[in-house]
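User: My collaborator and I are trying to settle a disagreement about how two of our proteins should look. Neither of us wants to argue from intuition anymore, so we agreed to look at predicted structures for both before our next call. Could you fold the first one, then the second, and keep them clearly separated?

Assistant: That sounds like a sensible way to settle it. I'll keep them separate. The first protein:
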Amino acid sequence: MEFMTGIREKEALELSALLDRGRIGQKVKVNGAIHAIRHMGDVAFVVLRKREGLLQCVYEENTSGFDLKDLKEAETVEAEGVLTEEERAVGGVELRLTGIRILSVPTAPLPLPIGKWKLNTSLEAKLNMRSISLRNIRERAKFKLQEGIVRGFRDFLYGQGFTEIHTPKIGAKSAEGGSNLFKLDYFHRPAVLQQSPQLYKQMMVGVFDRVFETAPVFRAEKHNTKRHLNEYTSLDLEMGYIDGFEDLMEMETGFLQYTMELLAKEYQKELQILGITLPKTKQIPVVRFDRAKELVAEKYNRKIRNPFDLEPEEETLIGQYFQEEYDADFVFVTHYPSKKRPFYAMDDPEDNRYTLSFDLLYHGLEITTGGQRIHEYEKLLEKLCARGMSEEGLTQYLDTFRYGMPPHGGLGIGLERLTMKLVGEDNVRETTLYPRDLSRLEP
């Protein structure tokens, strides 16, 4: 009888183990994909791609125990050799090959030059062949940093007493309503794909006090811009017993500080590959919506065309203003107009044209929307009625408030947008693994 007793140590080593200088001079075994082959006469460099990065292997004619002609790019192999120090190699080590075993052979040449430092090809080509283009080290690094952002979000919120939840993405009614809904037939009943987990996470505040989720959301917006997607990943949190919406901005500032420290510590390699300087998060300025519009109108001689909305150009100028005046990478814009916020947003008691809400702009792009919610049942009904909305499909949500809810609020962060600004791209598709937009359903 055979039993599983846990994970056995493998003979083939990972990069982190190879970088242990105690193994220098030893014969080791390693597996990986052939990323590139560089011929140098009697000597050649066979570069292996591993999950942790690249390993330079040295082929020497007559001593490596195989014919270099038998190797081709994209083959997966198991290589043996002597580990030696080499300052010029990535990580300061290289493998002097003594043998190689081919694990798999590609049946076609690579369609993209992934072995080059920078993948100089169109975005469409990269997206059409996503699983190949991301084998490029620089392209892959963007998504390692995206992993770090999600990891920072989770780790920080666990440390702040939050519970992770998982809410349905198919529902009878959406949190925000409007026309930008993907509608579907659900066993002969009308249903929609959720624009956010808003209603569910609010209900769970009455259970856990503090909750968060990282999950996809869907917007049937007919936009074809560099900043919009029809499916994206939202980092959502909701917290109860708040004193005001300022508590939420403090929580997000803490998340950003924690995450930037995590990236600096654990993702230094990817930051170096992409040449990234992390944004400043020690202190983030806060400005009212109406005051922000006035500031950019005055400084950049721009007429305020719509006092109750922010145009993309205005967001860009607000980001520029606070970079120039305060050397700030982020800025919180507060008190958004009530007509631009959903029914559950709490109005400012001093001026009900505005709400106790905010957006976080990162270099002029909105990456977060949040605010305080209405937590009293009667006031929720009043807001629904004032907007001419029906209670249909909201019964269980409203019932939650009937039986008592604490003052609470929350926010949602667009993961792909945050990653895009962090890595210095200007199109959100660059930092979306498999984008869904007006024209793309594959791969």
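The second protein, kept apart from the first:
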Amino acid sequence: MQTKRTFLLGATAALATPMIARAQAAPTRNASSFVTQQWQDHFSTLGRGAILADITSRAVHHWGSDGTYRLYPSSVPLTEELTRRGYTEVVRKRVGPTWTPTANMRARDPSLPEFLPAGPGNPLGTHAMYLTWPAYLIHGTHDTRKIGRRSSSGCIGLYNDHIAELFAAVEVGTQVRLL
């Protein structure tokens, strides 16, 4: 004859078994949407280093000229119309960038200022790397809610501590691909 305790243990085990089986059968997935990338799939040589901004997975991959690798979560453009894809390179770097919204940005949002100096209210954060394409940058952001989201007018944004790290590792002339 079963005791109350034996009955409760048996019933609990019977109820938990389907949940355990489902958990074990579930495929193993990375919690993020980052896709592992290899520089050789995008660049013919490392040269001065390489940056791959993956718009789909919202990640920036950096390979130094010595083969070191870093991966950063990023913000990406709001829409496909604002997204530029292809090959470019870093042509200039600036600590404490100033911001001048483009005419298109001001047309979409007339409340934008004509100019913002460097500082906490500046959407370019603490560091910026300018690309050969006018008005397209890889920069920081003071608004950490933007990272991992479609939130820019074309630029690639990183947390300020990440852009500072990347900025220090990247030379002018580093090749960049927006994918």
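Some points you might bring to the call about the second protein. The CA atoms of residues 92 and 148 lie 25 Å apart. The first strand starts at residue 49 and ends at 54.
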